[in-house]
């Protein structure tokens, strides 16, 4: 059995806060520690809650692209660049890259799930995102 002292737990909690992570899970064989940030205490720096589409509302016809993982969202192709993957009004095909989510130095593409037009970009460049958080609203292409 692995022993974990309070100083190690504090160090992990400090890492969680310093890296602005929402969740930290560490596994070593049968040992597992899972820490989650208290979202209510977390500052919402430049982050705006995305409205959930309501049935019968204007957004009901839009397709919401959601985050498939927790991480940092980037819409810029390169750091400190003005070149973005997409902008509002851009036409996209199914499978086109809309942005990327970085987690632990691994970049994962956020792909368009349907062909259409980018109606809204709900998250800013460099902002932390949660699993299943809405990132884009696409107006599906009508056949």
UniProtKB/TrEMBL annotation:
Cleaved signal peptide residues: none
Entry keywords, A to Z: Biotin
Keyword field contains Repeat: no
Cytoplasm among keywords: no
Superkingdom per UniProt: Bacteria
Occurrences of domain Lipoyl-binding (ranges): 62-139
Record-linked InterPro entries: Biotin_BS, Biotin_Carboxyl_Carrier/Decarb, Biotin_lipoyl, Single_hybrid_motif
Region (Disordered): 44-64
SUPFAM superfamilies cross-referenced by the UniProt entry: Single hybrid motif (SSF51230)
Coiled-coil residues: none
The protein, known as: Acetyl-CoA carboxylase biotin carboxyl carrier protein subunit
Species assigned in the record: Salinicoccus bachuensis
